[in-house]
Design goal:
This protein is mainly beta. Strand 7 (106-115) and strand 8 (120-136) form a beta hairpin. The chain has helices at residues 2-14, 98-104, 215-218; strands spanning 25-33, 37-44, 52-58, 61-68, 74-80, 83-88, 106-115, 120-136, 139-152, 157-168, 173-181, 189-190, 193-197. The protein has one domain.
């Protein structure tokens, strides 16, 4: 029930002149990306330490609300078009482990997401640090390579993704970068971060992205 209260607050706030975090929560960071994407991040008093809410916006408004933990496990995800909710099966077979990635430069994962009807999708993949760093708007980000398969629980592969993205050790989040379907490596989507905006700064917690917006770009989003 509490998740739906947060979703209702998200929708109402996004339709106003500016966005605000739900009651009992505190806005932490706005990230503006290329490809007409934007994320507002907040934490809530009632949640365990390390958990964060990440609201993804595209040109039309809120697209996805995701709750992650300190290892960036996708605990729950709420989509807006069409409306649906997915939750991670915990404990995962091989959970995402950001601590492992930072310690050893490589992390594998194998986890299942289920919707309200019990239908499951399995995500199997890896993240790898390249050893390089990128500075964006004063933020030091570590470069990664990744690949994952999305499959049914009986092993039928539905999607295969690869890409290069970024991870923030300070915020313990992954950030979009370049992504492509494994069978179409020339069709690259660049959703790299551009701006990091903190409370009190101009542009904090808006309700729309600002870069590269247009029907062609905003019609497709990367998974992470």
């Amino acid at each position: 029930m509490r998740s739906w209260v947060l979703i209702g607050a998200l929708v109402a706030s996004s339709e106003a002149a500016a966005f605000s975090a739900p009651a009992g929560c505190e806005g932490k960071l706005t990230i503006q990306f290329r490809n007409c994407l934007m994320t507002n991040i907040w934490t809530c008093e009632a949640d365990p330490d390390g958990e964060q809410w990440m609201a993804l916006f595209n040109e039309t408004g809120p697209s996805r609300l995701r709750k992650v933990d300190a290892e960036f496990q996708w605990l729950e995800t709420h989509y807006f078009s069409p409306i649906r909710t997915e939750r991670m099966v915990v404990p995962a077979e091989d959970p995402e482990d950001m601590t492992e990635l930072f310690a050893n430069g490589y992390d594998t994962y194998d986890f299942t997401i289920r919707d309200a009807d019990g239908n499951g999708l399995r995500y199997v993949g890896y993240d790898k640090l390249t050893g390089e760093e990128t500075v964006v708007d004063g933020e030091v980000l570590r470069n990664t390579e990744y690949a994952f398969d999305v499959m049914t629980e009986n092993g039928i592969i539905l999607e295969q993704m690869e890409g290069r993205q970024f991870v923030s050790e300070a915020h313990r989040i992954f950030l979009f970068g370049e992504s492509w379907q494994r069978d179409a490596p020339d069709l690259v989507r660049n959703s790299s971060p551009v701006d990091f905006i903190y409370p009190g700064e101009p542009g904090f917690f808006p309700n729309r992205p600002i870069y590269d917006c247009g029907a062609m770009l905003s019609s497709w989003e990367v998974s992470r």
